[in-house]
Amino acid sequence: GDYTLTARLDGDVVKNTPTTVKAILGADQDNCTIDYTLTVYAKDRKGNLKTYGGDRFEVSIKGAEECDVASEAIDNGDGSYSAKYVLEGETGSKFRVYIKLNGKNIKG
User: Which residues lie below 8 Å from residue 90, measured CB to CB, with a gap of 6+?
Assistant: First the structure.
C-alpha cells in the first residue's frame, strides 16, 4: 500500500519530505514454485542420436500419495523430446518421474 514518509533531522523536517512511498509484497521462499524442463535425446538401435521426431513420448509424474502432476510432453522434431512441469510441495517432498518412448520405459 501507499505510505507517507517524513524524515526529520534534529526535529526539523528534511527537504523533499514528506513523500509518498509504495510498499510491495516481497518474495516468500515458502510459497515459490519451480518450472522444470527435462529433455530426452532419442537414439536409434545402433546408438546414434536421431535427427527427426515422430516417436511416442510420454511423461508421468507422481507426487505425494501418488497424485498426478500435470506435465506437457513435446516432440521437438529433431530427435529430442521435452517435458515441462511444475513441482509444488513442502520442502523435502518427493516426486517420481516416469518416461516412456514408444511405449517402453527409458533407462536412467
Answer: none
User: From residue 106, how far is each of 22, 59, 89, 97 by CA, in Å?
Assistant: 52, 11, 26, 11
| CA–CA separation, 8 and 79 (whole Å) | 67
Beta bridge partners of 3: 21
Whether pTM > 0.85 for this model: the answer is no
Cα distance between residue 70 and residue 35, in whole Å: 12
Q: How far is CA 101 from CA 60, 75, 81, in A?
A: 12, 11, 9
Calpha distance 68→53 (Å, rounded): 26
> What DSSP element (H or E) covers 35?
strand 34-41
Asked whether 98 and 57 are in contact (CB, 8 A), the reply is no
CB atoms inside a 10 Å sphere around CB 59: 20
pLDDT tens-digit series, residues 82-95: 998 887 777 777 88
